[in-house]
Amino acid sequence: MTILPSQINDMLRLYSKFSGTNSHLPEDPFPAVEEPQDVVEISTEAKKRQIQDETRMEVMKKIKETGIVGKERL
Fold it and tell me: What gap in Å lies between CA 35 and CA 28, rounded to an integer?
């Protein structure tokens, strides 16, 4: 991408124009906006499936860490 000297001059003119005066800016340019909370409701069947999946993953993690016999792997 090529930047021409005239583009640089235009940018400098705009910068000097807007940096010299702050009267056009509000006190707080980005006022705090309270974000709405995301609420997700799932069915009892989906909740049950989620718990089963989490339990399955936890068991698999324990098996990988300790092995089937129960001795910790090195």
Answer: 18
**Tens-place pLDDT, residues 43-70:** 999 999 999 999 999 998 888 888 766 6
Instruction: State the pTM of this model.
Output: 0.39
As a whole number of angstroms, the distance between CA 36 and CA 47 comes to: 24
Q: How far apart are CA 65 and CA 74, in angstroms?
A: 9
Phi, psi for 72 (deg, rounded to 5)? -70, 135
User: Could you tell me the CA-to-CA distances from 56 to 49, 50, 63, 66 in Å, in that order?
Assistant: 10, 10, 11, 15
